[in-house]
Write a sequence for this structure.
């Protein structure tokens, strides 16, 4: 399988503070890679660099073999992002929001695409509703529809199921699994929900203080650290004084 | 440049305006109040001063011109702030839009917003005060164009500050126009200003625009040099603002402002 995301020794400094200290990783086609780490470990900074919102101090990012610094627009056309910390314009209807983003991503057959996503994400009945008046679960599915409007080859997810009830959370996870399998996209998932990561991710990266301190398949990490689940591994690594394990 | 993307971003604000009657009312309300207020003041001055006695509509015309400038500048800033307030900023900057496309779309939208407020105000001046801003003739278009460019320029400068420093720059967005108003010589000739302020005023396009509006209305003559000077300074400031916007965008990418905007 081909690497859709290639991160080569990227660093990000804010003045003297080193937020990301030279990390490298790849995400293959049809793969979900989990990005784990305590708050302040550098996950958001890493995602910001992948989205072109942050310029790495050094290192290189390639998406589908294209250098991000040289092909920003082409790359942004093939990726998308969802996070509970960003929202769609609240005063617009769901359909208006999806229509606007279809235009921004130059989607062909807009009506068909909206209809397809509405059906898949069960938001058909919400299309004429005001986005700001939706419940958290509904907003989440609408944001996911926006994130998929351009049929991205790479999807970056920052806590995609945070603040969702278990039923909606499970719906979103199931949807992501099926969508990834069907479209063979690459997903980078930053999450604090360890059961979600265990279920969705083939492999995970553990970050701490701007570095990757461990990586591997969830089951392998659990076995390596002599724990019973990924949450215990996370706690062990987060609390350890040593940065590398 | 992609017209589809420019249209897409325009639609985002068009939907916002057309969905909300209070928003449309707000766009029309303040220019109308401004024009009505200045209409009565100018009527009073016209009958009690010698300077204005041969041009009843001078103050009112200048008020309309200034309001157009104010609405254009604030309108542009509002479009930018709207993205921050709605926490949509990140979505916008991860969309495959070139900076030029974002600016073009906002510039067009700001013009439409300004016209929504301005046209009813202009229409009111005739029945209420017997004055028509159209008396400025074809030069009215050039004056409006000059004001529009300067309003947009100020909007881009403030948006550059928002990009660079984040939402904390918001208060500056509201105060820019008030800071420049005294130097613009909107309601009085430049000679009214102290000499040091005159020097500042002469490097702004505003003074040439308002001097020329008064010149046309009071002296019934046209001084092309004023219009020319206004355009030259406009080109200078507009180029500066675009350069600064690109600089701020790159600085924001280094500093991380784009990713935290709205939080």
């Amino acid at each position: 399988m081909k690497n859709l995301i290639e991160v080569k020794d990227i660093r990000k400094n804010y003045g003297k503070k080193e937020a990301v200290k030279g990390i490298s990783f790849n995400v293959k086609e049809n793969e979900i890679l989990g990005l784990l780490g305590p708050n302040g470990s550098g996950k958001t900074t890493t995602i910001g660099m992948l989205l072109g919102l942050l310029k790495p101090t050094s290192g290189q990012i390639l998406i589908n073999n294209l250098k991000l610094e040289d092909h920003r627009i082409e790359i942004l056309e093939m990726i998308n992002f969802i996070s509970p910390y960003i929202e769609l314009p609240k005063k617009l209807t769901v359909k208006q929001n999806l229509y606007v983003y279809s235009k921004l991503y130059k989607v062909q057959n807009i009506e068909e695409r909206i209809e397809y996503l509405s059906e898949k994400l069960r938001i058909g009945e919400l299309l004429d509703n005001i986005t700001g008046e939706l419940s958290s679960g509904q907003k989440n599915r609408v944001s996911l529809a926006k994130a998929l409007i351009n049929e991205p080859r790479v999807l970056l997810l920052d806590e995609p199921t945070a603040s969702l009830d278990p039923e909606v959370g499970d719906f979103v996870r199931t949807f992501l699994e099926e969508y990834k399998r069907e479209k063979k996209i690459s997903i980078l998932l930053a999450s604090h929900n360890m059961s979600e990561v265990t279920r969705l991710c083939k492999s995970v990266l553990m970050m701490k203080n701007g570095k990757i301190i461990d990586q591997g398949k969830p089951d392998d990490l659990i076995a390596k650290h002599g724990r019973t689940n990924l949450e215990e591994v996370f706690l062990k690594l987060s609390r350890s004084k040593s940065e590398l394990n | 440049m992609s017209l589809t993307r420019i249209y897409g971003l325009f639609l985002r604000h068009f939907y916002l305006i057309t969905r909300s009657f209070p928003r449309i009312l707000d766009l029309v309300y303040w220019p109308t109040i401004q024009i009505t207020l200045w209409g009565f003041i100018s009527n009073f001055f016209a009958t009690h001063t010698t300077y204005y006695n041969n041009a009843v509509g001078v103050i009112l015309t200048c008020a309309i011109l200034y309001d157009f400038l104010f609405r254009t500048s604030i309108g542009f800033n509002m479009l930018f702030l709207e993205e921050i307030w709605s926490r949509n900023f990140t979505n916008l900057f991860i969309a495959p839009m070139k900076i030029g496309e974002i600016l073009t779309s906002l510039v067009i939208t700001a013009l439409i917003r300004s016209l929504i407020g301005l046209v009813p105000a202009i229409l009111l001046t005739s029945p209420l005060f017997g004055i028509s801003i159209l008396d400025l003739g074809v030069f009215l278009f050039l004056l409006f164009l000059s004001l529009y460019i300067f309003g947009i320029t100020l909007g881009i400068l403030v948006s550059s500050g928002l990009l660079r420093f984040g939402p904390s720059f918001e208060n500056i967005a509201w105060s820019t126009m008030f800071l420049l108003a005294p130097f613009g010589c909107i309601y009085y000739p430049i000679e009214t200003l102290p000499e040091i302020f005159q020097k500042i005023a002469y490097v702004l396009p505003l003074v040439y625009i308002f001097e020329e509006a008064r010149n046309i209305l009071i002296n019934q003559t046209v001084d092309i040099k004023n219009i020319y000077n206004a355009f030259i300074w406009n080109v200078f400031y507009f180029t500066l603002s675009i350069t600064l916007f690109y600089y701020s965008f790159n600085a924001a990418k280094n500093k991380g402002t784009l990713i935290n905007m709205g939080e």
User: Anything to note?
Assistant: Chain B has a mean pLDDT of 82. Chain B has one domain: 3-260. Residues 166 and 257 of chain B are 6 Å apart (CA to CA).
